[in-house]
Amino acid sequence: MSRIQKAFQGMNQKAFVPYIMAGDGGLETLKDKLLFLQENGVDAVEIGVPFSDPVADGPTIQQAGIRALSAGVSLTQVLEEVQSFKEEITIPLILMTYTNPVIAFGVERFAEKCAFAGIDGCIIPDLPIEEEDLFAPSLEKAGIELIRLVTVTSPEERIEKIASKGNAYVYAVTVAGITGARSGFHSELGSFLAKVKKASKLPVLAGFGISTPEHVREMNQHCDGVIVGSKIVELFHENNLEEIKQLIAAAK
Ligand SMILES: O=P(O)(O)OC[C@@H](O)[C@@H](O)c1c[nH]c2ccccc12
């Protein structure tokens, strides 16, 4: 059983998975952020790779990506950095990137380097399930789990098709649109998450627009855990570690 499967199967608490942008504040801060999150009890971390054309990202994550790119941070550097401290990180790490950088890097090489760096899973949000055979075999061979997204606007058959795959967790996107803090959630949220849960044997984690402890608690009534991106990115940028702890604590 992989580290990621161990972390997410037989969980008796709700999961909390933060997203951070690698290289925001300098690549040398990545290790300290991961150690901080690990010490404070998160279940996994999504590490974003800065990319020039992040179509699914809202302004907060885009800005973090621009800061990282202007510091010269690349996919190669992110993988080398993660590899350099892999012995100290025990929680699963999920690399979040887009199809183009992976193709440019070479799919097979990407999968191997991820495995060598101690990465457990990947999220490639612009990779539709119809095209995943381009990536999935190489990732599987390297022991990297592909985490798939379903969205609140996906038709039911599509939810079923996507949610029945994989070994880690299903990422349920709770809004139609891009990442970023929001004040309210989709009216179909509860029934959407119920559909995803029914279609999958895996834990269902909800993400997009979750930015307060109240959101975390509300969302967790309908799913197995949450993913928080933009708010975590913003709080790290402001060095507000206290509020990060409060968000994590809301899931426990
Ligand atoms: O930022 P939010 O609204 O909290 O959403 C999570 C999200 O940031 C993270 O999982 C993510 C970052 N970039 C993405 C692109 C697509 C899907 C998901 C993501």
From TrEMBL:
Keywords recorded for this protein, A-Z: Amino-acid biosynthesis, Aromatic amino acid biosynthesis, Lyase, Tryptophan biosynthesis
Residues forming coiled coils: none
Active-site residues from the entry: 46, 57
Pfam short name (any one): Trp_syntA
Catalysis: reaction(s): (1S,2R)-1-C-(indol-3-yl)glycerol 3-phosphate + L-serine = D-glyceraldehyde 3-phosphate + L-tryptophan + H2O
InterPro entries membership: Aldolase_TIM (IPR013785), RibuloseP-bd_barrel (IPR011060), Trp_synthase_alpha_AS (IPR018204), Trp_synthase_suA (IPR002028)
Enzyme superclass (EC): lyase
Enzyme Commission code: 4.2.1.20
Biochemical pathway: Amino-acid biosynthesis; L-tryptophan biosynthesis; L-tryptophan from chorismate: step 5/5
Any one GO MF annotation of this record: tryptophan synthase activity
Cellular component terms per the entry's GO annotation: cytosol
Lyase keyword on record: yes
Gene3D superfamilies found in the cross-reference section: Aldolase class I
PANTHER family: TRYPTOPHAN SYNTHASE ALPHA CHAIN, CHLOROPLASTIC (PTHR43406:SF1), TRYPTOPHAN SYNTHASE, ALPHA CHAIN (PTHR43406)
Family to which this protein belongs: Belongs to the TrpA family.
Subunit relationships: Tetramer of two alpha and two beta chains.
Function in brief: The alpha subunit is responsible for the aldol cleavage of indoleglycerol phosphate to indole and glyceraldehyde 3-phosphate.
UniProt protein name: Tryptophan synthase alpha chain
